[in-house]
Amino acid sequence: MVEGHPLTPKCVQYFERRPYPPGEHGRKRRKDSDYSTRLKEKQRLRAQYDISETQLRAAFDRSRRSGSKTGEALIQDLESRLDATVLQAGFARTIYQARQFVTHQHVLVNGKRVDRPSYRLEPGDFVEIAEKSKRKEPFLVAASGAHADAPAYLEVRLADLVARYERTPSRDEVPVVCEEQLVVEHYSR
């Protein structure tokens, strides 16, 4: 759970039971500083994509140089990662599981094994699960549609465990809970 948002399905039950910090002073309210608000938003974004500070900073630098709105370009850049696409296509239940599938070489991009979760997809790329891996239990569950709710920028055939990265998503299509402007302000200080 990061800043009031459960990151995994297992975390939801704990968040519902106690939506305040632990300890004697957990229920007391205090005002956060501007810096604290921006830092927490950045940490929330990092946690949702399970990336390091260095990776987020590099993505921010790329998006700043892109020439378009920095916040939207940052989210689009992060969403073009292979692990994020595996998650959004419904092949994995969480970002952590998607990352593990990629590093354990269960995922093919355009017919070639890719074991880097940070691999950037281009529009038109095909992402699929390797033939031998399709018989493993997590992929059988995914093929049944257990965690499928693919966004419009992905064309997904769950029965075959194949997805096509159609185009770069717009910000409103990305289901990430984040105010990217605060992240931009944090890095621009």
Secondary-structure topology with pairs:
Layout: H1 11-17, H2 34-49, H3 53-65, H4 70-79, H5 82-89, H6 95-103, E1 107-109, E2 112-113, E3 125-129, H7 137-143, E4 154-157, E5 162-165, H8 180-188
Antiparallel strand pairs: 1-2, 1-3, 3-5, 4-5
Helix pairs in contact: 2-8, 3-4, 4-8, 5-6
What is shown here, in short?
42% of the residues lie in helices and 10% in strands. The protein is of the alpha+beta class.
Structure description:
- The protein has 189 residues and is of the alpha+beta class.
- The protein folds into two domains: 11-22 and 33-78 and 177-188, Ribosomal protein S4/S9, N-terminal domain (Ribosomal Protein S4 Delta 41, Chain A, domain 1, Orthogonal Bundle), CATH 1.10.1050.10; 81-167, RNA-binding S4 domain (Structural Genomics Hypothetical 15.5 Kd Protein In mrcA-pckA Intergenic Region, Chain A), CATH 3.10.290.
- It is 42% helix and 10% strand.
- The chain contains eight helices and five strands.
- The protein has helices at 11-17, 34-49, 53-65, 70-79, 82-89, 95-103, 137-143, 180-188; strands at residues 107-109, 112-113, 125-129, 154-157, 162-165.
- It has a five-stranded antiparallel sheet.
- Strand 4 (154-157) and strand 5 form a beta hairpin.
- The longest helix is centred in the first third of the chain and has 16 residues, at 34-49.
- It is globular.
